[in-house]
What we know:
- It is globular and about 70 Å long.
- It is α+β, with helices and mostly antiparallel strands.
- It contains eight helices and eleven strands.
- It folds into three domains: about 10-80, Arc Repressor Mutant, subunit A (Orthogonal Bundle), CATH 1.10.10.10; about 80-200, Nucleotidyltransferase, domain 5 (2-Layer Sandwich); about 210-280, Nucleotidyltransferase, domain 5 (2-Layer Sandwich), CATH 3.30.420.
- It has a five-stranded mixed β-sheet with strand order 6-5-4-7-8.
Amino acid sequence: MRTAPETPADVRRHNLARVLRHLSDHGPCSRGEAAAATGLAHGSLTALTADLVGRGLVREAGLVPGGGRGRPRRHLETVPDRVVSVAVRVTRERLHLAVADLSGRLGHRSDVAHSTPDGDPGALADALAAAVRETADAARDAHPGAHLAGAFLAVPGPVTAGGRVFSTDFGWPGPVDLGALLRDRLGEAAGPVTLANDANLAALAEYRALTVLRGAPPRSLAYLKADVGVGGGLVVDGRIEAGGHGVAGEPGHMPVAFDGPPCPCGGRGCLALYLGPEALT
């Protein structure tokens, strides 16, 4: 969700993230190049990069001739394996897990089948907790000394601004705080738990891929998918645009026929009933 920094600490954290993201996306560059790309003053950029170097997130990558008079430029680059996370994609029948570092490179992977009954979010949370705990242990073994940033879950169905998941795929009659159920089971074993809609994350991945392909970020991107039902996501200026209720860009349960057939979401004539894979096939 889009929020404006409120305190000097928030502003600093935001600027640290800008610098780190630029170095991650665009590879080694000098402090001057990073300052120009992020719009930060050179003095501020120098202080921020010193902080990132001190945290072990960034390192100096050697000297590069400046192409003119003056001292050679000292390039900076990220230290990808300084931070790792557990990435999980949740589907109706399987849990796909991987360990990812700052560069997005995947390490340990596993693919776990689950057969949790419809309407029982606790059973899904049990299966998730066991799989996430095992993957977190693998991350610590493969990356000793790295910081485990937490577990990040891509889930089917809208995720509200309050973090509740609305998923008809699992037969849940209403929004479920799946994150809270998982945190209760994991404790501190995997760090913070973050949930996001799978289509939103797919939209963000496509946005970043286009940025690399074109050499510049697109202004915005709309993404549609149809594997179970119809989902979608919006990205504006590099951020997921989820709207005030967390469901912007989700077309599957927009009614297109008010006298249409009943939908598991409680509505009638939703788009997914006509254009979803089940309906089409």
